[in-house]
């Protein structure tokens, strides 16, 4: 939470005698935004310094003798690591982590530059995997979120580079990222790290399906396994962060099925997985997911699985069923938001409902309505829905606050 939020909500706590005025001032004092801003400066400075060094070396690289090049790489990397450790021992954690991060960047840059110096030809991303592994080890050594994010970025970009440049998927990179950084995510229970891990994992699953040219539905098996893991996390903010990206992926897939599915032209071989194996895998994940939800007393959230219903295997009515799934899921998110009095969830559910409505509008009217009229009516519908739902949200939240007095 931020200082601004505490300053806004704190007086109400004092008024209800939940805390005293002195306690309120002490709580506000804990959220000094100035200190957070100053703490970020070394990290930003490390990024700029790293870019400056890389650009300088790249501009003059060809004019530097080979032995001096190798010495520069070793000296710069060692200096950054040594400086980082020194500042960390002095208690200047931000600056120490910033220099350690520069050491990690220097290590990766050194791998590339040494390969160029000695004309080494790479046929896979083993060197990048080693770089990511080094970042993972540093993450555990210093328990740093910044080093975690850099390592996660290295693995994600390396995987993309492998599929794009070498046309092969690196299972080793995925395994090291999923096990190493995944366990760190599980330990820290940090919302930001969990969001980033979930996004990277889903993207890498997409790369796997595309690279192997597998039926697209296989994508949802590892993705929903990630969702299922979120049901066994006690901290709900972390669980939501782990599950939101898989649900967004399923929601987008349902939209695509509504807008673009055509039985006459669609290639089922590119989409449909083997029914027995795929549906069996989903049912198994659903069972484990529901068990976790019941343990956490969140059984009603099993309704989120409606987006994964395998309507695509039916012979007719596929678009209508996926459209209904979109609306039901949107209503569910709205309903849970109102029940929990969670403003973010209400806003998100509102956005999903508006999006579902526009998908239905586009599906039903695009082919036969004049295009200018289509956009005019669509805009009016969007504005009307937005006004109505926002008005309804404010009314319900106001009633909820009134009931607390």
TrEMBL record:
Entry-linked Pfam families: DUF2157
Highest rank taxon of the organism: Bacteria
TM segment ranges: 40-61, 67-88, 95-114, 120-139, 146-162, 168-185, 192-210, 240-259, 271-291, 311-334, 372-389
InterPro entries according to UniProt: DUF2157 (IPR018677)
Domain DUF2157: 12-147
Key words of the record: Membrane, Transmembrane, Transmembrane helix
Keyword Transmembrane: yes
Protein name per its UniProtKB record: DUF2157 domain-containing protein
Species per Swiss-Prot/TrEMBL record: Paenibacillus rigui
